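User:
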Amino acid sequence: MFRTYGLVMTLILTGLILSGCFGGSDEEAEANGKADTNEQNAAEKENEDNQAKEETENAGNESDSESEESKGVAPKSASEQVSYTQVTWFGGSPKRQAEPGVWYYTADDHPSNLDDTFEWEDEDILLWQIGDEKYAGYDADTEKLEIAGDDLIKIIVSFDEDGPSDLHPDRMPRNYLKVDKDVLSGKSFLVETTDGEELSLK
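Assistant: Predicted structure:
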């Protein structure tokens, strides 16, 4: 009888031990599963946050790029203009022309009183004089010689903001300009103000 009782107790203890081992494994596996799931969810959330941040930064960069492009201005080409030097007279200047117009003086074709005034072997002289009475007495400056076409040059001019001279109220504006030799040969000319007003050459 005691042997039977001992055998029964042994079987019960063995069952409890085995049950405890397997039960612990299930709980541990469940805990590990939960931990793995939490880590995966955290990684996915971090990845989504990084993607959202990257998209926001890219959108900002594109916006900045578009803003910079909209502010951009193409540079003016030096080839659109002709280089020149405006002549400043000391000790008196040549008389004005009787009529308005444009004159292009070269080594072979210039007034005799200018023989010793310029370096005719290296340069030509462009003279413009307008006929607009409303600008009589004004001092003028040539702002640029603009290439307006294959054979057309725009002479862009400005006038003294102080108004006409009290000493020479009837004197018509003009300028002598030095240019490289032959650079304006065969060209036609018109004169405009910086505001685009075409001036009279007739």
